[in-house]
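Help! Submission page says 'invalid entity' but I think these are all valid:
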Amino acid sequence: MTADNYEAIFYPGKLAVIGASENPLKFGGLVMRALTDFGFKGDLYPVNPRGQSILGHKTYAKLQDVPGPVDFAVIAVPAPKVLDAVRSCVDKGVAGAEILAAGFREEGEAGKALERELVLTARAGGLRLIGPNGFGVYSPAAGLTLLPGVDFSREPGPVGLISQSGGGACDAIYMSRGRSVRFSIAVSLGNACDISVTEMLRYFEDDHRTRIVGAYIEGIDDGRDFFNALKGLAAKKPVVILKGGLSEQGPRGAAGHTGSMAGSRQAWEAAIKSAGAVMAKDIKDLTECLMAFNCLEGFSGRSAGILAGGGIRVVESLDWASYHGFLVPELDPETSGRLQALLPPAGGRGANPVDLANPMMSPSVIAPMMEILAKRPDIDFLALYQMLFYHFNEARRMGSDAFKIEFHHDLAKAAEEVREKTGKPTMVIMPDITSDPEHVYNEKGRMEARLHYTSRKIPCFDSADRAFSVLRRVADYYTGRGQSRFIG
Amino acid sequence: MTADNYEAIFYPGKLAVIGASENPLKFGGLVMRALTDFGFKGDLYPVNPRGQSILGHKTYAKLQDVPGPVDFAVIAVPAPKVLDAVRSCVDKGVAGAEILAAGFREEGEAGKALERELVLTARAGGLRLIGPNGFGVYSPAAGLTLLPGVDFSREPGPVGLISQSGGGACDAIYMSRGRSVRFSIAVSLGNACDISVTEMLRYFEDDHRTRIVGAYIEGIDDGRDFFNALKGLAAKKPVVILKGGLSEQGPRGAAGHTGSMAGSRQAWEAAIKSAGAVMAKDIKDLTECLMAFNCLEGFSGRSAGILAGGGIRVVESLDWASYHGFLVPELDPETSGRLQALLPPAGGRGANPVDLANPMMSPSVIAPMMEILAKRPDIDFLALYQMLFYHFNEARRMGSDAFKIEFHHDLAKAAEEVREKTGKPTMVIMPDITSDPEHVYNEKGRMEARLHYTSRKIPCFDSADRAFSVLRRVADYYTGRGQSRFIG
């Protein structure tokens, strides 16, 4: 297969939807709506034996009727009709097709045989397949999206995503949106009958648009080959792996879902560790790792300067930094004194962590303290604890929007200046305090702040535990390349 | 000290604020605003040498000028003026006072001496002290709240909270609000110079309004006595402990915050374990434990029936249930067949977990399946995975509110019916997918659903990991009372 084929599949200009429909309760209706609402950028050809036009696009009775070549096809018909659709793609000379329907390998022997038939037919005709039993391809540059991906970001970016779960891919992409993680290509491979996890690892290794890779894997059939591809990719680009089905009872679930053999936890941990990749514990953790890699290229910090308002945040950040293996160096009396001079007389402490005395301390006080800490040679990065809930709650009570906007704007600017002057990054910890729908305004403010910070490459986390856990893996990747770096 | 004193302190009818102010930048101004906005239910007496009236309340130059007895005083003056205020409380025969200012034990020798003086003065005069360096008492029944607690729930409930961090107490109470956790009394003890963690454990043991207790502890001075009080309380009521400062570097933070000796992790884990209490890892985890104890009195389930839409949620819930020690029993062919008959032809699986095929499966399909699972003798409780994000996103796109409300209403009703018929509880897992402020509507929907579920004693969690981790500790408490049950 040549690189040109991948271009036709992942960046198609001419796209057919086989089984297109006006009915939003059918796959073919959902796909049409997703593609038109998301904004497919090329020529879209609905294929359906009945009907003249779907959502404003001229409809063709057969794929063969579409004028000129077709790059890629979405096969949105039910399982029993998929083989015919694959044959028509071969006849038309389509480069690749994604198959959405379930009802193949994961359904037992008859499904397995049908899936084998699809693969043989496609291979004989030079057609590449994605799926079945998946949500297909998300390619923001081409305007292509997954089945429930109408509200994904339309902006392309440096992250490649491979998923053996369509739902998992959607979760990760929606969780990424407000964390400024943007994708080159995301594929929901489903049963991965043809294009496999291993092939996608190799694709992303060579793809100049992709700088970071995430993968949700349930099982693979080509252990040795997979391992070599993972190792090759991880040597060039950060890779974060979430492996499903590793518990005692877990393999049962994976077998029912994508018909995969899940494998043992020991074997998987050893393989990922020795390939030099990083392991995630769930989709949110995977997303936060992608965010951190996106923000902190080359990060190898081991030693934190922490600024936290209110005593428990001081205690907690020290506890979690320690737990995840970071140092929080004590300060010399001169540095302490300079910090103390900037703090209010009671409640604050010019130490590391700096106790900011209250969670709403002004950026004009915090910014110079950030610089003082970052200039110390024994501090590699800053962690800034922001209790935005109280902030936004106060703003809401006062009916003021101005109060709200200023803080994260000023603090992000301070972090950017510190990074420019010292090369040292800042990360922000913003706990998710809001629980009541009446206070959703506060949560919106937290989301706005997170978007603002992360778009400036300042990673944001929901707790000190998550922050230091993720940062530890980023530092492990960059300092131990090719070394053992698994953490549980 | 008699029970009457506690009533005067925690449910005061006549409250003085010493150092009351109109200025919202001062403690005395914040407190006055908090008490009036929150709605203190008794008589409020601002005390300030200047001024006639504060926020509509007649102001007294000295505490002695207040007509008649005073139950409780908020001392809102700076540290150097606190001793005089304490003396005036003694002279007035006040039962208790909370001291907000920092600048005592945590600030070194002079602060220690001043704090000792406060205690000696108060004890000699029969006055009890809360603080200093804390946020005081939250008593919804009395209309008393913590300094930043204006938007706490006004409804009292069965949970007692003890905190050596005012900020931590506020976080827990705000996080509790949308999880239907309501408090009898929460105290922010700060340096705990007089009323101690140990005394509060004993108070809650005897308090008929309190059924569950949570505590954030930095350090205690009375190890043996604390342990006995904890053991006595845990034998009667669930107790969840978050201990700060347990890491290698952590004690430094605790010393600076409340002047506490943090103690070793080993000693604390052993003590909590052997007392029969449950340990939390951070404030959010503490809150989720309180929610689960509030919903699941007597829960001792070990074996789950899981319903999850979309393959990854099946795999993930099996993995995390296993990881936290729960069984997910395989089903007999007859039960499987009955479930399968209710599911759509492709994509769903009538197994345990039930694969609901898609994350928006209708309650009319889910409800009978819940009952089928719950009626099995080898299933103790149900776990229902709800991907509300997709749900609310769809509702938002369609501009429909009706679509949104129906699902969690119907599912909560189904869970209540199952509980009535079989005695088996349901818990809900609703991941926090929303990240972009543009989608905050979806998060609001999730919060509304959580409030609805938890107000019906159906606990809700943000991930499968958190759900089974918390449930494990609830089951451990109720099945292993007095036994070892610490989990890390």
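Support: the input was valid. A stray whitespace character was the problem, and the output above is from the cleaned input. The longest strand of chain A covers residues 156-163.
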